[in-house]
Amino acid sequence: MDVVTNILTLAGYEGLVFGIVAIGIHLTFRTLSFPDLSVDGTFPLGGAIAAVLISQGANPFLATFIALIGGMGAGLITGLLNTKLRISALLSGIIVMVGLYSVNLRIMGGANEPLLRDITSFDIMARIMPGASKLIVAIVLVVIVVILVIGFLSWFLRTEIGLALRATGDNEEMVRGFGVDTDKTVLIGCAISNGLVALAGALVAQNQGFSDVGMGIGMIVLGLASVIIGEALFRPRGITMVLLAAIGGAFVYRLFIAIVLRLGAAPGDLKLITAVLVIIVLTMPFIRKKLRGDWLPPAKRW
Amino acid sequence: MIGIHMNQTDSILKLRNVTKTFARQTVDEVIALSDITFDVHNQDFVTIIGSNGAGKSTMLNIVAGLYPPDRGGKIYIGENDVTRLIGYKRAGFVGRVWQQPDLGTAGHLTIEENLSLAILRGKRRGLRRAVSKARKELFRKELSLLNLGLEDRLKTPVNTLSGGQRQALSLVMATISKPSILLLDEHVGALDPNTAKTVLELTDKIVEREQMTTVMVTHNMEVALHLGTRLIMMNKGKIVVDIDAERKRRLKVSDLVSAFEQAAGESFDDDSILLSHAEHMK
Ligand SMILES: Nc1ncnc2c1ncn2[C@@H]1O[C@H](COP(=O)(O)OP(=O)(O)O)[C@@H](O)[C@H]1O
Ligand SMILES: [Mg+2]
């Protein structure tokens, strides 16, 4: 394979798998207006659960599913801290993220859990596709997962409960005025969001052959960057398009990272590069307004 | 106080000794409602006027369940004691439209999505499709009665509508699932005069057609006299004037001002109301 195809397929796989994270983050940050930072902890939680179960001989698909459920549980806790104990959304997420660090260490019995000799979901997929390269196998499996995720959310967000959830992030007081218990819609949203992030963590751990307690660092920033890039590039309208734009944004973001690495950046530099990239995309609309000479209100702090 | 009807069986809303104190036992303590006992009967259309801070919004908020009254007060809707029922649990009984157009609708959602949310007022929400064919048909029918062309724009995000259109939509949303009582809090207060007139006409039409029991706060005396079947004036947390349909028909704004002065035992000095009075005179 030549370099360009190489970079594109790699970004394709990573865009899809981190696109699932971006969709989860879209659900909380955008749909619910709930800035949930717990994802830095739920991503490795998903990896840890899947890796430990698989290394103990569990069916890898079942292990992946249980990882998703575990992530939903963590998201539920974040939601409960906010809705029932009235801790701010931002702090609720941070508290859960910090707590999960210890939980993840406990689950793995250490800082990481290797999967070298174990049969992962990707290994099973490879058996179905003899002759295909490792990366193509990974892409096919992740495409299937992404189709399931987008299909589920496109359906769910159009149901009566799903509509109430979307309206909660828009005008909570009004939604309550129509008899919706918005605590419940927030809990459902946080659970699904973190479930998806843990699912992505489980897939990444299986594909890279190990789970690591630090693998979630920067996940929020990465996911937010993807969401924002997707919105800016594709200006999506409608539920399904918004979800696809998150995947597209993640792909563009990973492509950018792959190119930067090619150009000689060290893997350790990536977090800083991402941080700078996020600053740039976040401030773009602001700078455009500033250049136009618009009147700008003071900064928001959520 | 004039014309309080007690122990009527057809009361939709009953307030019994309702007092509301804000910031109790601080220097900012305010008694927003002071021992109010008040009945709204089936198909009453009550208009409420009163100076700023009289307690009009507080009364509507307490009926809607935004906060409870002080201990001892009771609120009944129909036969139900709702005093301790938190807001979203009594939403099945109470429809509301606020002053600011963006409060009554979800701006990022489309017209049909907003209406789908509204049509399930107080009902269990499940995993059925929220915007169904049958519902869309109903929405078109309801919206076409407004004569604003909204029936052809079901997929339009609500934040692209004008303030008047949003208030008209809020009215339909508030009434489409037939709550026991409709609360309007200066719902045309943020609109320009022409739009305000249109929305008031729509209000009258909808209340009439749906035979809604309605409580409407307005700062415009003429509107308060012209619309509705009963008029109430509030001052300092109390209902000081209560006029039935019969007397209301014969009343003029100047009568209203003197009725207020007599009841409140003070001269009428609220700028905003005198202003709408003056507008009426010219
Ligand atoms: N949430 C609140 N906290 C503290 N004081 C309030 C609150 N709501 C209303 N008040 C006070 O209660 C009084 C009545 O207010 P309100 O019912 O809004 O009057 P109106 O709608 O008749 O203008 C005012 O003095 C107001 O400042
Ligand atoms: Mg008011």
Structure description:
The complex is a heterodimer of chains A (302) and B (282). Chain A is mostly helical and 302 residues long. Chain A has a single domain (2-292), classed as ABC transporter involved in vitamin B12 uptake, BtuC. Chain A is built from twelve helices and two strands; from the N terminus they run ααααβαααααβααα. Chain A has helices at residues 3-31, 39-55, 60-83, 89-108, 121-128, 134-156, 160-170, 172-177, 182-208, 219-234, 239-262, 270-292, and strands spanning 112-114, 210-212. Chain A has a two-stranded antiparallel ribbon. The longest helix of chain A has 29 residues, at 3-31. With 282 residues, chain B is α/β, with parallel strands linked by helices. Chain B has a domain at 1-85 and 221-282: Rossmann fold (3-Layer(aba) Sandwich), CATH 3.40.50. Chain B is built from nine helices and ten strands. In chain B, strands 6-7-8-3-9-10 form a six-stranded mixed sheet, sandwiched between helices. In chain B, α2 (111-119) packs parallel to α4 and α4 (163-175) packs parallel to α5 (193-210). Classes of the chains: A mainly alpha (302), B alpha/beta (282). Magnesium ion is lined by residues 56-57 of chain B.
Topology diagram in text:
The complex is a heterodimer of chains A (302) and B (282).
Chain A lengths: L2 H29 L7 H17 L4 H24 L5 H20 L3 E3 L6 H8 L5 H23 L3 H11 L1 H6 L4 H27 L1 E3 L6 H16 L4 H24 L7 H23 L10
Antiparallel strand pairs in A: 1-2
Helix pairs in contact in A: 1-6, 1-9, 1-10, 1-11, 2-3, 2-4, 2-9, 3-4, 3-9, 5-6, 6-11, 7-9, 10-11, 10-12
Chain B lengths: L10 E12 L7 E12 L3 E6 L5 H9 L9 E4 L2 E2 L12 E4 L13 H9 L13 H12 L18 H13 L5 E5 L7 H18 L2 E5 L3 H6 L3 E6 L2 E7 H6 L2 H12 L6 H11 L1
Bound molecules: adenosine-5'-diphosphate and magnesium ion.
